[in-house]
Design goal:
It is built from 8 helices and 7 strands; from the N terminus they run E-H-E-H-E-H-E-H-E-H-E-H-H-H-E. By secondary structure, the chain is an alpha/beta fold. It has a single domain (4-237), classed as NAD(P)-binding Rossmann-like Domain (Rossmann fold), CATH 3.40.50. It is globular and about 50 Å long. It starts with a strand and ends in an 18-residue tail after the last strand. The structure holds NADPH dihydro-nicotinamide-adenine-dinucleotide phosphate and 2-hydroxyethylsulfonic acid (8X3). Residues 139-141, 149, 183, 245 line the site of 2-hydroxyethylsulfonic acid.
């Protein structure tokens, strides 16, 4: 059955890979993000392949903008079947006692409050229709802290708690809730974390074959299309030579 899929942060990395995978699957896609130009380019790309696409440019931290964006959804786009809460970021890698206040606020406002806003706006309709699926993009970082990552890890631990809590709150409906927890995925993530220091960002993936956005999108697509009685509650996805947030064996020979 064709679904309407809303993806936050669909302009890059995991979100963009999800947009392409769900589009290939024949679904209708609502792509959202802050970068209007990128959204337009991606809309063009997906439409050229025959996908029905709607773009909404807003910042998930701006609650009023999110509310207005949802209020503008044309009738035929209002019944969102799958919400992929993906927009998120890490900023900085300083010890907790030396971190940057603004970076902390941006991570907390995006990864926790933005995800909550979208959940609050979309899930009531799912509950009313007794149908839907929320896929939150958490992280291995939510399972265990690592050096310099405390605040980012805390936001992803919050995503775990919010996902588990939502699953409890909708357990008497047909709505399903999934926490995808990737490890090292090569996207724009590290460029953003290091404020555009591309050399430092490249080192994160040195000597190891990282996951790709596609690897994560495959799992999202599987979860969304599992039989109705199957709820993929949580999936931890790691590169073969990553064993935990901080244990990565580099210089291995994964083909
Ligand atoms: P990218 O930087 O490639 O993509 C992040 C996306 O989020 C972009 O589309 C970005 O758009 C969007 N975004 C960021 N802030 C906001 C905002 N305030 N409002 C709306 N959109 C926003 O990184 P990834 O694809 O790697 O990250 C996606 C998710 O995956 C994040 O939640 C991240 O924490 C998580 N994750 C990533 C891992 C990795 O190793 N890469 C591993 C585990 C989890 P733009 O900035 O253009 O607006
Ligand atoms: C992103 C994975 O380990 O770089 O969530 O924090 S990690």
């Amino acid at each position: 059955m064709q679904k309407t899929v809303l993806i936050t942060g669909a302009t890059s990395g995991i979100g963009l890979a999800c947009a392409r995978k769900f589009a290939k699957n024949g679904d209708k896609i609502i792509i959202t993000g802050r970068n209007r130009k990128r959204l337009d380019e991606i809309e063009k790309e997906l439409k050229a392949e025959g996908t029905e696409v709607l773009t909404l440019a807003f910042d998930v931290r701006d609650r009023e903008a999110a509310v207005s964006a949802m209020a503008t959804l044309p009738k035929e786009w209002q019944e969102v079947d799958v919400l992929v809460n993906n927009a998120g970021l890490a900023l900085g890698l300083e010890p907790e006692f030396e971190g940057n206040y603004e970076d902390w606020e941006t991570m907390i406002d995006t990864n926790i409050k933005g995800l909550l806003t979208m959940t609050r706006l979309i899930v009531p309709g799912m509950v009313e229709r007794n149908r839907g699926h929320v896929i939150n993009v958490g992280s291995v970082a939510g399972d265990a802290a690592y050096a310099g990552g405390a605040v980012y890890c805390a936001t992803k631990a919050a995503v775990k708690a919010l996902t588990d809590g939502l699953r409890i709150d909708v357990a008497d409906t047909e709505v399903r809730v999934t926490n995808l927890k990737p490890g090292l995925v090569e996207t724009n993530f590290s460029n953003v974390r290091f404020h555009g220091d591309t050399e430092r960002a490249a080192k994160v993936y040195e000597g190891v074959k990282p996951l790709t956005g596609d690897d994560i999108a495959d799992v999202a697509l599987y979860a969304a299309n599992a039989p109705a009685h199957v709820q993929i509650a949580e999936v931890l996805i790691l590169a073969t030579h990553q064993a935990s947030p901080s244990l990565i064996k580099r210089k291995m020979l994964t083909p």
